[in-house]
Amino acid sequence: MERSQKGFIPVMLTPFKNNGDIDYDILTQLTEIYLKAGSAGLFANCLSSEMFELEDDEKLQAIKHIIKVVNGAVPVVATGTFGGPISKQAEFVKKVSDTGADAVIIITSLLANEDEPDVVFNDRVFELFDKTGNIPLGFYECPVPYKRLLSPGQLIDFVNTGRVIYHKDTCLDINVVKEKLKAGDANPNFGLYDAYMGHAVKSLQAGSAGLSCIQGNFFPELIVWLCDNYADKTMEAEVNNVQQFLIDNMDVMHNVYPIVAKYWLTKRGLKISTITRRSVGVFSPSIRKQVEKLYNNYDHLQSNIGIKNYL
Predict the structure, then answer these.
(1) Which of 125, 175, 228, 286 has its CA 20 to 30 A from that of 19?
(2) Dmax of the chain from CA atoms?
(3) pLDDT > 80? residue 4
(4) CA 123 to CA 74: how far, in whole Å?
């Protein structure tokens, strides 16, 4: 993904109507919110989108809708692998590419079982490459159905083919991230986007292309602000405050996600239902109370930094 500065790639939510259908009117508004906040791209049809709970035609229709709303303003990447024989996965990769997605994302845990060695995984990756022409691809170390992390060596080998331009990293280890960033040496169009906000500033400083995190579904403008200001020495105190805020509030944002993110957005004025298709637990009164506290804390932080509210 071509870039001139650090960027935020939101992992998009899927809004549903009360009858369980995708709410495309709200999806339009949500997409526009990400764009107005300054997002550098969008990650559609991902885990936050409840991709495993969508039918294939719903996945494709939602991706098409998002791309239509974006209208070329930023790149859109979208997941295209959902298990089964590589030939079957390759066919769906092509369908996702045909929607106009700028890159199709491979879920690392769906090319090999948890007990299968890296050599098997690698062979299947290259088989998928062979069966998908010149379609730009990316990787997502999705925690479902299990988390399969790429080693720095694997990522470098894959990027060196010229096919891989995006990687969403979930290793949670800044030293490993630094090694993975060497993959970009052979391909200037490649970008590693870190999902872990515990070391967001260190990751940006190390050379990550940007951030791609669930926190962006609460306050996308804050993640954009961090990408824009992490290296500004005059803003060092504010950057450190934002980093600590993200660390301190990580647990509440992961609790019964994505219900909690949808509830948060209702508080910010978006008329989105909290309905989800994925079973993530109960949005209890205690969790609601934690969200209310987070809302007040963010309002204070936002005022101190001077970030505009895009909702």
Answers:
(1) 286
(2) 53
(3) no
(4) 32
